[in-house]
Amino acid sequence: MKRIIHFISRGLMSGLLLLSCDSQNSITDPGSTHFIKFYGRDGDQTGVDMVVLPDGSAFLFGTTTPSPVTTGADQTSQWYLVKIDPKGAILGEYQFGDITLNETAIDIELTLDNNLVLVGNSYKSPTDKNVFIKIVSFDGVELKSALVALKNSSNLDTDENVASVTVLSDGFIVAGSTSNVDLKPTGPNPPNSGDRQDAMHLRFNSDLTLVGSAWPKTSGFLSYDAAVKVMQVGASQFFIFGYTNRVVPGHLNADYNFWTSSIINSTLGPNISYGPTDDEKLSSVAIGPLSTSFILSGITYNQAGTSDIYVSRLKRNLDMLASDAVFQKPLSIILGLNVPVRTSIFTSASNGFLVLANESSTTSQNWLLTKINDELTPSWKLPIIFGGEGLDNIGVVKELPDGRILMIGTMQTGKPESGETKMTLIKVNNEGKLID
Amino acid sequence: MGKALRILFPGFIFLLFAGHGFAQQTEDCDLSLSHSESEFNAGHFYGIPSILNECLSTNGFTKEQKVRAYLLLSQVYLIIDDPIAAEDSYLKLLKVDPEYVANEARDPIDVVFLSKKFTSTPIFTPHFRAGLNTSVFRSIYTNSTQPYPVTAESSPRFGAQVGGGIDWNITDNISLCIEADFGTKGYERVRSGIGFNDVQTVISNQTWFDAPLYFKYSDNRDKRIRPFGYLGIAGSLLINATNSFSLNDSKPNGSQLITEGATENVSYQHIKLNRSWLIGGGVKYKIGKNFLFADLRYMGGLSNITNENTVYYSDPSKVDKSSLGNPNYVLSNNVTRYLYTSDLFRLDNISLSFGYIVPIYNPRKIKVAKTKSLSRKIKRRNNSSSSEEDSSK
């Protein structure tokens, strides 16, 4: 009896000593390794792009639109810049734009002198968008700004769609597309010839003045042409990445295909478009490992309207020949109908590439994250879906130095029919999961 | 009517005579007990067992009379040098009144010595309990979807618990107790500052199975009200957890847009096993051989009960496996709709229970009689009385 009591007593006392309390001393802060954060006060906010600094802090870029019940002057959409610490907490919130106009955010990049260049559209009207570019400091102070409104040969305002900005040693190049089909060096096509949109590649000096007239502002064919990104590959050599629906040799009809072009010494160089007979629209470009290739991602739409992610790996030195494409293929991930032309591709330090896209395989539209290997084949067994009710839109994906993945975009919150959209930042582990 | 009377009348007559007979017997037994006590005082010991025997065998004594009778028999048998019969009588006394404790002031010293050979302390004492409780939310890490400073407040919510346990009485005062309790617990968490000026409310209701193990000290002196206190540990199993969410979006014009929905089962977002330390105490109120009790208990949760691996996600068992993407990692509705993720937290619990104790008395002879303290006491008393005599001389 005594032995039993002694045994139980000792067991109980040992148990009490061993029963350590879970506390901050014994558990790692999950917020330091993974999180999901929603940014924005009242109204709707979107997230489109971000810049991550070496110390882990970041700048998130998007658009803020006040709640419909807002009264007063400030009822327009403005650019929304958020400075955050590595855990996603806000260090500063800034808005930019003309409060009498709507502005939408498109792209943000770090400048060579440690400032931020922001680009987007400024809406004169729903069908007359202009190119809006600003340079701001890390403290959110506006340093320079420019608004570019192109005019066609009839001196009428045209509609410009910004896609990206590229930082050069002496300025910037804003890529996109424009309804101004008169500006291209080859001159305007005949009226009603079907030339709807040309690729736009505006070059700015560091002070945000446009580079002289020698630089080709646009390029294109008798078709719908759009630039997505311009890459500088030499002192005076640039590659333009975009898409076009001009008729590709071997295709019976016009369909959208990835398109690469070049500017050499301010002169348009050779170009090529390639792809299957479905509609492939490019939306993201990354430089491959060791800068030996370009990785392109976009959406391919088949005749039935369903979509898939389409990726292409091009060699670094483009000859503007079909042989430039080392790999090009759909990922066989059925994204659903009416998926926006938006993807983001990022070169992973641990081989392969991260790809972010939208999917609408169910009643809602969500983010889809997957990883592909160097041969552009999915290396994750299943993609990971992020989102909830309503329309969620991706921004970009980036990999952090520790291998974790950061994604920005927009998510619908609250009631689907009356809730708000919020700029959303998700930090996940290297498998795309919200776990340590 | 007449038929009914024919049936009832004989019954009435029977009850009348039976009652009269019982009263007559009680009166007789009362007389025989008085007679026995007179005989004892007169030194006529040998006839006493036969005088009492009839009433003891026919159950004619009241409980109090039985105690007096068996106590008298114990004394008689000790005097006539029949220790086995004395012990038997004292054991019967304890069976009648298990809580009877002989004391030197009231009982002859030889009976007190005899009593030290016995105990009636129950080996096991079961009890049943029920009551109300409230939980205390102890955040370890704030796990918020918000980049803004958020203030969180918890409001008490009441649950109920029911259960039972058994005490293993190691000594007269110390027992090792184990329980099995089912309880509903819950908390309400209000976070302000969502989206800078919105408010999010989460009401959590949980069902737990608790298995406390603790050492209890009880004051078992012969009083009607007896305090007790205890300290121990508990293992708990989360059976079910549901959350009700509400997101109150305050608009600049003062209007509010409230997002609410059906209660969601979030059991999978929790770690099912919890450990706790516990401390408590209360009072027992004696009713007959049994007790009513009131018990106030604090259980301090030791475990984080939020599952970090699932707190952001939907229940995989409810995700359509044929849908696109990994079904194990689909964002939960509470994240995107209500902007909610649970903190990592411990859950403490304060409960007030009322219950009923049914001691399983087991009067028995113990192997080693505890007479040392009594001997010391007698010795001290003798010494002091002899010194008083010396001083008076």
What does this structure look like?
Chain A is mainly beta and about 425 residues long. Chain A has one helix at about 1-20; strands spanning about 35-40, 45-50, 60-65, 80-85, 90-95, 100-110, 115-125, 130-135, 140-150, 160-170, 170-180, 200-205, 220, 225-235, 235-245, 255-265, 265-270, 270-275, 280-285, 295-300, 305-315, 325-330, 335, 345, 355-360, 365-370, 385, 395-400, 405-410, 420-430. In chain A, strands 14, 15, 16, 17 and 18 form a five-stranded antiparallel beta sheet that branches. In chain A, strands 19, 20, 21, 22 and 23 form a five-stranded antiparallel beta sheet that branches. In chain A, strands 1-30-29-28 form a four-stranded antiparallel beta sheet, with no helix packed on it. In chain A, strand 14 and strand 15 form a beta hairpin. Chain A starts with a helix and ends in an 8-residue tail after the last strand. The model of chain A has no long low-confidence stretch (mean pLDDT about 90). Chain B is an alpha+beta fold. Chain B has helices at about 1-40, 50-55, 65-80, 85-95, 110-115, 335, 370-390, and strands at about 120, 125-140, 150-155, 160-170, 175-195, 200-220, 225-250, 255-260, 265, 275-285, 290-300, 345-355, 365. The termini of chain B are far apart. Mean pLDDT of chain B is about 85; it is low at about 15-20. Classes of the chains: A mainly beta (about 425), B alpha+beta (about 400). At the A-B interface, helix 1, strand 1 and strand 27 of A face strand 7 and helix 6 of B.
